[in-house]
C-alpha cells in the first residue's frame, strides 16, 4: 500500500541508471527520466497501470491481509457446513460515502486568459453521508440506510400527517366557557373543533398558557411571554456590546434558568439544565434582529481603548 507515483518512478529510473553506470538520455539537472521513457516503459509492461489509490487507514491495512481473510473464509466454511444456512439467509453488507459537494471537478470550457473559473455547488465544503446497502444471496435487498452527520439538529422538513394542535386559543376558550355552562365535553369538542383530551386537561387547569405567551394556529406555544423574551434579547445584545457575546450553549442554559427562576412551566431538560435546540430555532425566528456570528478576537487593552467616547474625542481633534 505504498504505490509509487509517476514522479517517483521517473526518479527511481534515473537513480537506477546512475547507480549501475548505464548510459542514459535522462536529465541530470532534474535527476529524473523523461516522460517519453515512461510511455515506452508502460507499453512494454501492460501488466502495470496508473490507478487512483483509495485512502486506507493503517489499522485497516494491518487487519485486512491474506492470513486474516483466509481465516475468515475458513470459519465461514465451517459455520455454513454446520448450520446449512439457505441462500435467502446469507446477506452481504457494504457501505459507501456520499458527499454533498463533488470532491473532483470535471474540466469545463471557459474564456482563454481567465485567471479563475468558478463552479456553483451547494457549499464549498460538503458533508459526508454514509450509505449502508445489504442484500441476500438470492438477490433480495433491504432498504438502504443513510447515516447523516446530524446528531441533535435533525432537519425539520418532513410533512406533518396529523392535525395535532390545529386549533386556535379562541376556540379552546369558547369550549371551556361552554363546559362551565353545563355543555358535555364531547359536544363542546365537536362544536368548537378542539381536541377532547386537551379540553379536559384545560378544565383541570393543566397546560395553561403563560399570561402573554403566544399560541399560533398549528404551532407550539412559546414558553416565555413577549416581555420576557424582549428582556432576554436585550440582555444578549448588551453582552455582545460589552464584547462578551453569549454562545448557543449559554443562551440555552440562560433560558432554562429564567424559566426555573420565574416558575414557568417548560419542556426543557432538567437533567441537562438547558432549553432545547427547537426552542432556540423558534426564538431566533421570532427575533430576527439577533443572529449567530463568529466573533473576532480582541485584546482587553484594545477593547478598553476602542470605545465610543474615545472615538468621538479622536474625531473632535
Automatic annotation (TrEMBL):
One of its GO terms (molecular function) is DNA binding. PROSITE patterns: HTH_CENPB. This is HTH CENPB-type domain-containing protein. Residues 216-293 form the HTH CENPB-type domain. GO terms for cellular component: nucleus. Keywords: DNA-binding. The keyword tRNA processing does not apply. It comes from the Eukaryota. Gene3D superfamilies: Homeodomain-like (1.10.10.60). It is found in: Nucleus. InterPro entries: CenT-Element_Derived, Homeodomain-like_sf, HTH_CenpB_DNA-bd_dom.
Amino acid at each position: 500500500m505504498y504505490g509509487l507515483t509517476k514522479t517517483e518512478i521517473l526518479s527511481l529510473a534515473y537513480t537506477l541508471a546512475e547507480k549501475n553506470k548505464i548510459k542514459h538520455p535522462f536529465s541530470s539537472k532534474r535527476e529524473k527520466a523523461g516522460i517519453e521513457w515512461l510511455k515506452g516503459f508502460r507499453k512494454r509492461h501492460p501488466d502495470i497501470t496508473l490507478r487512483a489509490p483509495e485512502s486506507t487507514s493503517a489499522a485497516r491495512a494491518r487487519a485486512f491481509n491474506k492470513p486474516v481473510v483466509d481465516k475468515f473464509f475458513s470459519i465461514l466454511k465451517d459455520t455454513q457446513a454446520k448450520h446449512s444456512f439457505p441462500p435467502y439467509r446469507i446477506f452481504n453488507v457494504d457501505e459507501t460515502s456520499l458527499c454533498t459537494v463533488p470532491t473532483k471537478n470535471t474540466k469545463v470550457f471557459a474564456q482563454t486568459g481567465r485567471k479563475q473559473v468558478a463552479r456553483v455547488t451547494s457549499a464549498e465544503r460538503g458533508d459526508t453521508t454514509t450509505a449502508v446497502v445489504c442484500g441476500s444471496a438470492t438477490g433480495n435487498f433491504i432498504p438502504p440506510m443513510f447515516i447523516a452527520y446530524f446528531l441533535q439538529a435533525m432537519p425539520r422538513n418532513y410533512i406533518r400527517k396529523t392535525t395535532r394542535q390545529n386549533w386556535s386559543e379562541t376556540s379552546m376558550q369558547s369550549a371551556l366557557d361552554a363546559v362551565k355552562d353545563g355543555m358535555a365535553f364531547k359536544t363542546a369538542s365537536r362544536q368548537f373543533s378542539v381536541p377532547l383530551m386537551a379540553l379536559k386537561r384545560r378544565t383541570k387547569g393543566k397546560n395553561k398558557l403563560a399570561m402573554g405567551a403566544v399560541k399560533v394556529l398549528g404551532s407550539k406555544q412559546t414558553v416565555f411571554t413577549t416581555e420576557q423574551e424582549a428582556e432576554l434579547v436585550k440582555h444578549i445584545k448588551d453582552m455582545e456590546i460589552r464584547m462578551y457575546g453569549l454562545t448557543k450553549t449559554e443562551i440555552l442554559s440562560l433560558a432554562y434558568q429564567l424559566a426555573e427562576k420565574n416558575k414557568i412551566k417548560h419542556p426543557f431538560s432538567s437533567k441537562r439544565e438547558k432549553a432545547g435546540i427547537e426552542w432556540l430555532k423558534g426564538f431566533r425566528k421570532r427575533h430576527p434582529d439577533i443572529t449567530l456570528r463568529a466573533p473576532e478576537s480582541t485584546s482587553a487593552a484594545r477593547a478598553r481603548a476602542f470605545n465610543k467616547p474615545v472615538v468621538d474625542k479622536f474625531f473632535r481633534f
